[in-house]
Amino acid sequence: MNRHRPDRVTDYDRDHPIVVEGLRNSFDGQVIHDDLSLTVRRGEILGVVGGSGTGKSVLMRSIIGLQVPDAGKITVLGDDITAARDDDDIDIRSRWGVLFQGGALFSTLTVAENVEVPLQEFYPGLSDDLRHEIARFKVRLSGLPAEAAAKYPSELSGGMKKRAGLARALALDPELLFLDEPTAGLDPIGAAAFDSLIGALQDTLGLTVFLITHDLDTLYAICDRVAVLADKRVIAVGTIPELLALDHPWIQEYFNGPRGRAARSVGENVSAARDDQPKAKGMDKRPEAGE
Amino acid sequence: MRELSDFTSTTDADGAVTLALSGPLVVSSASRLDAGLRAFDGAVARVDLSQVSAIDTVGAWIAVRLARHHDAEIVGASARARRLIDAIAGTRDDTAIVPPRLPAVRRVLSSVGDYVSGMGTGALAFLEFIGAMMVSMGQLIAHPSQFRGKALVRQMELVGVSALGIVGLMSFLVGVVIAQQGAVQLQQFGAEIYTINLTGRLSFRELGVLMTAIMVAGRSGSAFAAQLGTMKLTEEIDAMRTIGVSPMEALVIPRVLACTLMMVLLGFYASVLAVFGGAAISTLTLDIPFATFLSRIQDVVPLHDLWVGLVKAPVFGAIVALAGCYQGMQVEGNSEEVGLRTTIAVVQAIFAVIVLDAFFAVFFSEVGWG
To answer: Domain B6-89 belongs to what architecture?
Structure first.
């Protein structure tokens, strides 16, 4: 743990924890990304949108080192991910948390044991008692009822699985949180609850969140900026009003289609209500896991 | 050097003790601090966080637990620390994180009980499975157009054709071993010519089919269980049901039929190769020419030996396939089950094959095919 690699870990721009430059990915000759660049700012929730097959998940997998790109440089918290030779070479794994699309919980372990896995792996010195206590409050922090800690993933509903996956992603108090379609497959109430949970956690824990989504409501409700993937690269990054001002057919269709318009009117109401009581939201607004 | 977290206690004029935590209160430095704080004994009135340089939820939890344990008050918390403390303060520290475990004696008794009742329900479920398969078979006979010929051919290739190499090699070597070991014993009576009888009759009656069944159980029975089990987990089987495709028709029957048919062919092939193995070693060590060995086989092996083997083969094949498919369809819950069920499928198949083989041996002797 904490092996220092002066050759790779350089002084980095603390305001930009993720910097992707000139990324190129291809599968069997089919180019997914070409010369893709993206910078994530510290403390923001960046929403990543794009049509199916534009490589949103591949981008995330490249950033967290699961996918080796053909070319390009990815720097996460100052560590050059693309220069890593294997998984163990990435020292900063304890500083990020990843929620995979299906939760990817270890099916033979209970929810609490799932949360304990990264703790045990990175901090074997923690006493059993403290580790159990940490698992308990992480489960609670993710909005799961306390009884869920002792359940196996197969006994959980889809929404609870996502929350359990989030609890595991948050196990090490990461600075970066990667979420792959966190609200996909949830009912609108569950999705809205998950959105506000992520917003509240980001506020409380000071996270930087990289969020892949198809959910327009999520974009309006919690994202500070939105990155649009199209034509094999990030064609635009900005707040939704900034994106709306651009004259790109996909962006216009995405935000001005029937679903986009509906989400926007709701989103405007939400942000209006939010402005009335700025930053007053905390964990007290966290809805109980009801799904 | 990394900054370490620590704590100091001070007593003020009223005798109230203040524990002051200092340094980074984060997960990476938590273990030492936590051990120290757990060992700390005595009343604490205040927990002072003003000297804390960094805090995360684990640090906040340590402060919360300390304050709760000593009924103390947290003072000097930064805005961030206060936010984290508020976020986790509602956690009870007594909720179970693993399902409750019974005491050892009761656990043993209850697992024995589970095992016994599992055998009962397992036998019933297996009967039900066979019944459902019979019904499907009946429907297929009534409507032959629904029969999945392609799936059958595909399974026949997987179970039979691709097993030719390993089954052939195994049988050849078994033939070599029987002939060589048999010859060593028979030479003591000067009866080494009976090596041919031994190799031929044993291969056709017993070993060819039995060894093949064991090999098919390991190769294909396990594959059936793992495949169907994984399909069960990924809800593919549920999807088939809702589309109106019967998993029995599409998955189980082609596998069972393929395994039954291919076992006959593989068993015969294995027996022939075992004879070749025996002939080869006899040529080398006993000076019995290869062609003589083969022509003597025709004289000394009665035709009913071949029938004994060929009657057993489809039965063994069906058992192997049924055990694999049944266990695969029983998978529920998690990926560990797939492994468990696959193991059970292979063990049960091999066990059942050997037990049945013993019955067959007695039966065929009794009916005069000795």
So the answer is: 2-Layer Sandwich (3.30)
Q: B57 vs A125: CB contact, 8 Å cut-off?
A: no
Tell whether A140 lies on the interface with B, counting CB pairs under 8 A. Answer: yes
Rounded Cα distance, B215 and B265, in Å: 14
Q: Are A177 and B57 in contact (CB under 8 A)?
A: no
pLDDT at residue number A10: 52
Report the run of H or E that residue A211 belongs to, with start and end. strand A208-212
The two three-digit tokens of residue B370, written as one number: 């000795």
Paired tokens of A107: 């099916």
Cβ-based burial of A198 (10 A; exposed 0-12, middle 13-18, buried ≥19)? buried
Rounded CA separation A134/B65 (Å): 11
User: Which residues fall within 8 angstroms of residue B48, CB to CB, at 6 or more apart?
Assistant: B18, B19, B20, B21, B75, B76
**Tokens standing for residue A196:** 């506000």
Residue B213 token pair: 């069944």
Residue A277, pLDDT score: 45
Closest residue on chain B to A174 (Cα): B56
Which chain B residues are closer than 8 Å to A132 by Cβ? 97
Using a CB–CB cutoff of 8 Å, tell me whether A73 touches chain B.
no
Residue B217: name the closest of B310, B337, B354, B362 by CA: B354
A126, A128, A129, A130: which to substitute to probe chain B, counting the most B Cβ within 10 Å?
A130
* CA dihedral angle for residue B294, residue B296, residue B302, residue B305, rounded to 10 degrees: -40
Residues of A in contact with B57 (CB under 8 A): 134, 137-138, 141, 170, 173, 205
Per CB-CB distance under 8 Å, the chain B contacts of A127 are 31, 34-35, 38
Q: Minimal Cα–Cα distance from B285 to chain A, Å?
A: 56
Please state the domain extents for chain B.
6-89, 119-366
Q: Does B42 touch chain A (CB under 8 A)?
A: no
Q: Is A246 touching B (CB cutoff 8 A)?
A: no
Work out whether strand A208-212 and strand A45-50 pair parallel, antiparallel, or are unpaired.
Answer: parallel
Q: Do B30 and A126 touch (CB under 8 A)?
A: yes
Check residues A48 and A268 and name the one with the higher pLDDT: A48
Instruction: Please name the member of B31, B80, B96 whose beta carbon is closest to the beta carbon of A127.
Output: B31
Token readout for B175 is 């033939």
- Per cent of chain B over pLDDT 70 is 98
Contact A49, A227 (CB under 8 A): yes
Which positions ≥6 away from B80 have C-beta within 8 Å?
A206, B55
pLDDT in tens, B33-75: 888 888 887 788 888 888 888 888 888 888 888 888 888 888 8
Q: A152–B333: do the CB atoms touch at under 8 Å? A: yes
Which of B95, B100, B332 minimises the CB distance to A136? B95
Model confidence band, residue B196 (pLDDT cutoffs 50, 70, 90)? very high
CA dihedral of A235, A236, A241, A242, whole degrees rounded to 10: -120
**Which residues in chain A have their CB less than 8 angstroms from residue B334's CB?**
107-108, 152-154
pLDDT for B293 equals: 92
Cβ distance B95 to A150 less than 8 Å, yes or no, reads: yes
Tokens (6 digits) for B166: 């390993």
